[in-house]
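On clarity, I found the account of how folds are encoded harder to follow than it need be. What matters is that the chain and its backbone geometry are given together, residue for residue. The format is easy to grasp once an entry is in front of the reader. For illustration, here is how one protein appears when written out as sequence plus structure tokens.
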Amino acid sequence: MKKRTAEILALLDEVYTTEYKCYLTHETPWQLLVATILSAQCTDARVNIVTKDLFQKYDSIEKFANADLEELEKDIKTTGFYHNKAKNIIACCQRLMLEFHGEVPRTIEELTSLAGVGRKTANVIRGNIYNEPSIVVDTHVKRISKRLGFTAEDDPEKIEYELMKVLPKEHWILYNIQIITFGRDICFARSPKCEECFLQKYCVEYNQKPAKKRGIKK
């Protein structure tokens, strides 16, 4: 298993490099926190369009903490689930001001105590802001980790812990970055580009398909 995992990671490094990058546009930790809350059930591209104007209008944690709920809902409406997101962003920023002196905390326990922040969001902050080894289980990581046979779980937290056992710690953050790109380029949820996939030989799902469906002639 270790050899197989190492081969998969080496191919990901070769194709996607080992550069750390965040797909959500931000300049400060709190901006990334807000953007990540907005990214739930929404594409990063859409979030970046919204936050371009949003972060000019609300250019501090204080302004988000004191925002009018209905006005903020209108500002973020196109990200979907805007009522809950607006409510959570205001509550989150109020708590940041009251309990964390306007600073975004770094521990998983403190981060998940904030409104609208689950383990996924917390790990985005820990990995991208504080460079803490962390695994972010988004829709791409969940789908592709199952296809690669790294996990059989459906629950994101269980997947996170399983991946922590399988992947070397120094690759935790990088794995998420690479898998997001891989999921957007090749390994789609529906009709993945299996014939173009450089990880085809490692894909449990692909190799369980009948030969005919895989395009193999007898």
